[in-house]
Amino acid sequence: MRFVLIFFLLATLLHAQESTLKIVVVEGQDAVNNINQPVTREPVIEVRDSANAPVEGASVTFFLPSPGPGGVFANGTNTITAATGGDGRAAARGIRYNKQQGKFEIRVIASYKGQTTSAIITQTNVAGISTSGGGSSKKIWILLGAGAAAAAIGAIVATRGGSGSASSAAPIVITAGTPTVGGPH
Fold first, then answer.
1. pLDDT tens digit string along 81-114?
2. Maximum CA pair distance of the chain?
3. Are 56 and 86 in contact (CB under 8 A)?
């Protein structure tokens, strides 16, 4: 009986020493990065403990690949280390993507009180797409559409405005259609 009790006590102690940390990718998984634009969203992870609570003060290291698609951090290297805040989160700040297109992995390792865990964030570098949701290009298209409508109205007024007599022709009505925004053709 005593042997069984000692066995369970040792098993419990060994289980307690196993890593109970986990990394949850909050932002950046499967991101598509336009290598011709600055970074708009940085990879963000959250470290959680066995009770699924955020872990403050964990050391988190992000690793970008050396060869191939990827980039460097603001410090000029392919690694950066950050500490998690009270919300258990850490971000890979200051990524400058290189000009190589393709899929790559950001390796993440988190350590806290002798426990270590890891995760992979997969991203892809591409050229020529908008990752900002079309904010500025959408505004340009709307302004161009409004300008074209104003020019059309000006042309109609200029060609009809000097007659000085009431005409029996039906008035011309111009209504704006639904603007559409798309990629280059």
1. 999 999 999 999 999 999 999 999 999 999 999 9
2. 115
3. yes
φ, ψ for residue 172 (rounded to 5)?
Answer: -90, 130
Task: Tell me the helices (H) and strands (E) count for the chain, helix number first.
Answer: 2, 10
Tokens of 120: 């992979």
Strand-pair category, 115-126 with 31-34: parallel
- The CATH code that applies to domain 18-126 is 2.60.40.10
Q: What is the pTM of this model?
A: 0.60
Q: Under a CB-based contact definition with an 8 Å cutoff, are residues 110 and 48 in contact?
A: no
Domain coordinates of the chain in residue numbers? 18-126, 131-157
Q: Are 83 and 41 in contact (CB under 8 A)?
A: no
Q: Measure CA of the first residue to CA of the last residue in the chain; give whole Å.
A: 79
